[in-house]
Input
Amino acid sequence: MDKEVEKVLNELKTIAGGNMNWSNYQQDIIQNWIITVEGGYVNNPQDPGGETKYGISKRAYPNIDIAKLTLEQALNIYYNAYWQPLGLDNYPFPFAFVCFDCSILCGPRWISNVMKNAYLDLQSQAKNWDIQAMYVLRKRIDYHTHDPNFREFGQGWLNRVADLMQEYIRLRAVFVKEG
Output
């Protein structure tokens, strides 16, 4: 493992408190999602994140050799920097999955605030995860449409929100059946 990646992962594990705690099923879903929506290595000069692989950007992780980043390393970063600090293990997986994807593109601080506001705004329906998820997705659309890079990347962002909504509905059906 690249020494810089190992150093970053160790720091994240210390902050977040450990290794990935996803079930194999959850990890498979997340891994397939990341591969589908983020893809492999890209270096688009118009992307503010710069060099990116599996959605992990050079801007966010300047000490990592992005081109050599493995999928397993990216998943560890996602779990320790995005999933765990937001406490997403405490939510039903379909809702947590929506918040996780939002944290990737909009940032953990942004989604944390949206999650708090969703709870406050929808207290009477706080346990209605479908309403909570749609609230989060609506806020994400607002976020993207106000981004200065919307002209360049907006269609892709909105397509991803639509795909995320479909994935939420699919996951919700699976998890309701499994109880």
